[in-house]
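Hi V.,

Quick status before I head out on leave. The structure for the redesign project is tokenized and pasted below; the design run finished overnight.
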């Protein structure tokens, strides 16, 4: 078993999941730009048979390269990673989860992520993810006020 950190720039978000078909690369790309025509993202998909390449797409070359490097390092067939800049996964997740070839979303976050990977003679398998750090306290009234104000500040509540 290995623990592999995903590496992406501070402030960027990711969507990390599993899909089952090479068509996913184009379908995920189309889903992203259909949700936000100005989306800045990089996408990488680990092909599990045939040429067994890391297939890529996106609208930002830097983010495409970062996604590809992460997926290549993971070495887990049919996994995909989207690195997103200047928007949030919540804007894209419903559409991506609705794609017929998408099987699973492991996480959608801006937090540090570690991927727990098992290796066999066939390849790598994602067993799970560690998304961020553990809580240090239980929310109090000040925390509730902060949450309320924060969601309105970033435009997700009115």
């Amino acid at each position: 078993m290995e623990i592999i950190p995903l590496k992406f720039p501070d402030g960027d978000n990711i969507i990390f999941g599993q899909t089952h078909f090479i068509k996913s690369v184009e379908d995920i790309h189309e889903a992203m730009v259909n949700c936000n025509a100005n989306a800045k993202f990089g996408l990488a998909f680990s092909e599990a048979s045939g040429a067994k390449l890391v297939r890529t797409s996106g609208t930002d070359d830097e983010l495409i390269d970062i996604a590809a490097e992460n997926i290549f390092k993971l070495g887990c067939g049919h996994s995909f990673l989207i690195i997103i800049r200047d928007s949030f996964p919540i804007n894209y997740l419903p559409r991506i989860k609705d794609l017929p070839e998408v099987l699973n979303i492991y996480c959608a976050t801006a937090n540090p992520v570690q991927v727990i990977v098992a290796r066999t003679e066939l390849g790598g398998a994602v067993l799970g993810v560690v998304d961020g750090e553990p809580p240090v306290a239980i929310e109090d009234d000040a925390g509730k006020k902060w949450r309320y104000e924060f969601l309105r500040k970033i435009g997700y509540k009115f």
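Above is the designed sequence. Strands lie at 2-6, 13-19, 40-46, 54-58, 79-85, 102-109, 113-119, 124-131.

G. will cover questions while I'm gone.

Best,
W.
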